[in-house]
Design a protein that fits this description.
Blueprint (H helix, E strand, L loop, with lengths): L3 E6 L4 E6 L4 E8 L5 E7 L1 H4 L1 H4 L1 H14 L6 E4 L7 H7 L2 H4 L7 E2 L1
Parallel strand pairs: 1-6
Antiparallel strand pairs: 1-2, 2-3, 3-4, 4-5
């Protein structure tokens, strides 16, 4: 998915940004393993802005999402099809999911 205003926290394996196609802010958590994939979680605009003022709070949000996994109320979508509902399966076949990642980002 394409995110505007991407901020990448490489040492914590997550990215935050705004997805204009969905009109929402997202936290994208990279799940390491034999094959890396991404899980997408919704965040608020205020939470997105934490990258400027209190990145440790963003780290806590990411950790909580990781622990709760697909059971999180914030869970939106996964690149792994078996983690999605039928509705989200349709998203995986859409143009939104197939858009290239934005190569422009800032490390935080």
């Amino acid at each position: 998915m394409y995110l505007e205003g991407q901020k990448v926290r490489t040492d914590h394996y997550y990215t935050v940004g705004y997805c204009p196609d969905l009109d929402r802010y997202l936290m994208v958590i990279t799940v390491p393993g034999a094959v890396y994939y991404d899980q997408y979680y919704t965040i608020s605009r205020a939470e997105y802005a934490l990258w400027q003022s209190d990145v440790k709070k963003l780290d806590l949000i990411a950790e909580k999402c990781r622990q709760e996994n697909t059971g999180s109320r914030r869970f939106f979508y996964s690149d792994r099809p078996d983690e999605n509902t039928e509705e989200r399966q349709a998203l995986s076949r859409s143009e939104i999911a197939r858009k290239r990642h934005n190569p422009v980002f800032d490390r935080i």
